[in-house]
Write a structure and sequence with these properties.
Distance between the termini: 38 Å
Oligomer: single chain
Strand content: 15-25%
Largest sheet: 7 strands, mixed
Length: 528
């Protein structure tokens, strides 16, 4: 079956007039799109209107040696079908002429998967997995002819495949290409600002560039992207049941983000030491768990970062939050109806969001820990042991494992006084590297120990932590302590080989660069 790449293009664009003919480097936008499509080695035809204004499109096609079909300006569906029919094409690869950075590898992958899985339509945007602007749809001419016979709605005729999305047709998303997974990046040209951005890319990289090179450029030179000046809030929860780990990770991210961002802490412990500390770092507001939505409305944010304990999430509340919503989660299996999700559960089976169209990043690479000092010296034996069970320690583990040979850190001053030798919390980012073993629960301390490169014994304080610790134990990352009475036995069983295997396996999961990585993804998303 003949496969044809059809580039849909006309000069009568409204937001950015005549955009396909505007210069980008030494070429027009349309020329960029045509040359990118030609690299796929499929035949290419530009389908434009029969209006006088698009004579320039036909002239460019002749110059570049590709076909040009001219048809109805308004009935784009008819134009695409007739273009395919005239060129005897049975499979249509549809792209738009305002995508200068088309990736020929994506075109080829899309056609391959369409032929392999045989959906009614294959695309690259139902689930965002690629930068916006290297988008492709693959569909049969026969199916589009069928649609043409079924609908007369102006919207369906203008938007070629919209009828398929609105009815019960089989639609498949292109499979993940990990090296191109940057769906928050916008590379399509809709506005003058988009074009200026594309010109800055070309100025840096020249005119023979790949999507991989663009991604690398932007990640290493984020100033090329116009950073957002939107006003937002970061919503976190803390307290006796939920600990204060969310405040810790939120503060690291707030410090990294060059945004007008205020912290809103939902807590039943407004005078906790960590709440007080937050107020010295960022503009902080403290509210209770009741009537959260009404309390947030007064901030009038353009975006909200939500990093509450997942057990407190109310799906309906999140739906009603103002502005664009970026969610930090561990539970999965819920369509939260947000724009972006970071799921830091190490178990990939928990990363499902029921067909959500949010941009989703998953795994421990997306944990905000700040800059972590790594332990460099291999562990030969366990001499120095550190233990901490979070800001609240609701299960009272501190009292239960209090031993002379363990440096025990406790947040609450009165509890410290009752535990002889207990110390105030240490700087986990810099001082954990001095220890040979960490004893903790399943929260932030565990993750920081993994990123530091210090072995750990973990005791869960809730059902979620138990599942996470069990998963990590099965992957050789941690020792799961199910019975506190077995602590000394577990410590004695940790040979140098086991200790250093834990270190190696943990560092494969979490590299300590998560704060920078998350901040970058958020900035690029908000700047779109």
């Amino acid at each position: 079956m003949k496969t044809l790449v059809i580039i849909q293009a006309r000069s009568g664009s409204k937001r950015l007039p005549n955009k396909i003919n505007l210069p980008l480097g030494n070429k027009t936008l349309l020329q960029w799109a045509v040359e990118g499509a030609v690299k796929s080695e499929f035949p290419v035809v530009v389908a434009t209107s029969n209006k006088f204004a698009d004579d320039s499109v036909e002239k460019l096609c002749k110059k570049l040696g590709v076909g040009c079909f001219r048809g109805s300006e308004e009935n784009v569906l008819l134009r695409i079908v007739e273009c395919a029919k005239v060129n005897n094409a049975e499979i249509i690869v549809r792209v738009c002429g305002d995508q200068p950075f088309l990736d020929f590898e994506v075109l080829k992958r899309a056609v391959k998967e369409y032929n392999e899985f045989k959906p009614d339509l294959l695309n690259t945007r139902t689930i965002p997995v690629l930068p916006q602007g290297i988008d492709v749809e693959v569909v049969s001419r026969q199916l589009l002819e069928e649609v043409l016979s079924k609908t007369t709605k102006e919207y369906h005729l203008e938007h070629v495949t919209s009828y398929l999305y609105e009815n019960n047709y089989t639609i498949k998303n292109i499979s993940l290409l990990p090296e191109l997974f940057r769906p928050e990046l916008k590379l399509t040209i809709d506005t003058k600002e988009d074009l200026d951005f594309a010109r800055r890319i070309v100025q840096k990289l020249g005119e023979k560039i790949t999507t991989r090179e663009i991604i690398s450029l932007l990640e290493n030179n984020p100033e090329i992207y116009k950073l957002t000046n939107k006003k937002g809030i970061m919503l976190v929860s803390a307290g006796k049941e939920y600990g204060v780990g969310h405040i810790s990770t939120a503060l690291e991210l707030v410090k990294e983000l060059p945004l007008e961002l205020e912290l809103v802490i939902v807590t039943d412990e407004p005078n906790h030491e960590f709440v007080t500390k937050a107020k010295t770092i960022v503009k902080t507001h403290v509210i209770g768990f009741g009537g959260i939505l009404e309390k947030l409305k007064k901030f009038n944010p353009e975006f909200v970062l939500v990093d509450m304990d997942s057990r407190t999430y109310d799906k309906e509340l999140i739906k009603k939050l103002p502005g664009e919503v970026i969610l930090f989660d561990v539970l999965g299996d819920v369509d939260y109806n947000v724009q972006m999700i970071f799921n830091r559960n190490p178990d990939e089976s928990k990363h499902n969001y029921l067909g959500s169209k949010a941009i989703i990043y998953t795994g421990l690479k997306y944990v905000s820990l700040g800059i972590i000092k790594k332990r460099i010296i291999p562990i030969e034996k366990v001499d120095k042991i550190f233990a901490s069970f979070g800001g609240s320690d609701p299960c009272g583990f501190s009292e239960k494992i209090h031993q002379e040979n363990i440096t025990l850190a406790v947040f609450d001053e009165s509890r410290r006084a009752a535990l002889a030798g207990a110390v105030a919390p240490i700087d986990l980012n810099n001082e954990l590297a001095e220890f040979d073993l960490i004893i903790c629960s399943g929260g932030t301390t565990l993750l920081k120990a993994m990123a530091t490169g210090v072995p750990r014994i973990a005791i869960p304080q809730n059902e979620y932590e138990a599942k996470q610790i069990e998963f990590l134990e099965n992957n050789g990352v941690v020792v799961y302590l199910r019975d506190l009475g077995n602590l000394n036995q577990k410590i004695a069983g940790l040979t140098p080989k086991k200790l250093n295997a834990q270190v190696e396996n943990g560092l494969k999961m979490i590299d300590g660069e998560g704060t920078k990585r998350i901040a970058q993804r958020i900035l690029f998303f908000l700047a779109r």
